[in-house]
Design brief:
By secondary structure, this protein is an alpha/beta fold. It has 14 helices and ten strands.
């Protein structure tokens, strides 16, 4: 991108997906004096138009006025677009956000799992490859070109009390980085904005590594919690389940080593971190309980595909995916595809 983009302040910001994380980020960014817009629909749109965006945090209720619409054209071109939707909704959303994105707009992806741009300018022998598991046919990449993207990893827990009403539980970490790993003026400006907005923001020299490390735990605990209904403490307290999880993690660790993101830790190190969360309901378990589509492809199918691309066997990951999608399909929360 050119220098104009790098110099542009992020004054006009749009949130796409004003759920738990998107709403939390939106309130903070509005307090940083951004002109905040939200692309929403249904009950969320109505709530935002009538009451604004509300956040319960630290014992206080924060309310900000937003320009909300179901029509991206009504919101207009933005300096920054924060995409915080669940992965199953992204293909549809990508086709709707075009009017928000001008030649100099930055698109910040604050989502779980492996994003569609993961291998752009990164990945060693598989660099530049598209991932059919998360972007079948490349439709998302065409709608959201890689040159606009900055990656974001969120380390926070939030929930939705009601449409447009968010509750923050713990964590305030955001990690941002260019897919290329470069320290560009625009990512430096974005990092400064996030710190101004009150986030514990970190600028990453390799955002794919941060995505992969978060995924390393989420890709197992999330789906297992979804089809068992168990909280994280119960999952890790079962020695057979914990052994299976460790095996899946070792497969992902081997894939990471092949694409340039080695993990120095062992699975038990990560289990110790997860145990500190206590009796925690994962986001995927919450989705199942709310009858919402699950993010299996971004969390598990993409890892299986990366294993195929790097020729790393993934027999345990395959079992996890098979069981998880069978359960989700039975609930109508996962769309079957013949090629998966």
């Amino acid at each position: 991108m050119n220098d104009k983009m790098n110099e542009m302040p992020f004054q006009k910001i749009a949130i796409v997906g004003a759920g738990a994380i998107g709403g939390w980020m939106g309130v903070h960014l509005a307090h940083a004096r951004a002109q905040l817009s939200v692309l929403a629909r249904g009950d969320t749109l109505q709530a935002l138009q009538q009451h604004g965006l509300q956040l319960h945090q630290g014992g206080e209720l924060h309310t900000v006025s937003v320009k909300a619409s179901s029509d991206a054209a009504a919101l207009g071109e933005q300096d920054l677009v924060v995409i915080a939707v669940k992965a199953p909704a992204l293909a549809t959303v990508a086709q709707q956000v075009g009017p928000l994105i001008g030649p100099h707009t930055v698109v910040l992806t604050a989502m779980n799992g492996v994003p569609w741009w993961f291998l752009q300018g990164f990945g060693g022998l598989v660099a530049g490859r598209s991932l059919d598991a998360v972007d079948p046919g490349g439709a998302i990449a065409r709608a959201l070109p890689a040159r606009h993207i900055i990656g974001c990893v969120v380390h926070a827990s939030c929930s939705v009390d009601a449409p447009g009403v968010i509750r923050h539980h713990f964590g305030d970490g955001l990690i941002v980085g260019e897919p290329s790993g470069e320290t560009t003026p625009r990512v430096q400006a974005l990092h400064a904005l996030m710190r101004l907005a009150g986030f514990n923001a970190t600028l990453s020299p390799q955002i794919q590594k941060d995505i992969w490390y978060k995924l390393w735990g989420n890709m197992t605990i999330n789906p297992i919690s979804a089809f068992t209904g168990a909280t994280t403490d119960r999952i890790l307290d079962d020695p057979l389940v914990r052994q299976f999880i460790s095996g899946v993690m070792l497969e992902a660790k081997a894939i990471g080593a092949q694409i340039g993101i080695p993990i120095a830790q062992e699975p038990e190190d990560r289990h110790a971190v997860t145990r500190k969360l206590g009796a925690f309901r994962t986001s995927m378990l919450q989705d199942v309980q709310a009858s919402k589509p699950v993010e299996l492809d971004a969390l598990v199918s993409a890892v299986r595909e990366l294993g195929q691309l790097t020729q790393v066997p993934t027999p345990l990951t395959d079992v996890l995916l098979g069981l998880s999608r069978l359960h989700a399909q039975g609930l109508g929360l996962y769309e079957a595809r013949a090629d998966r």
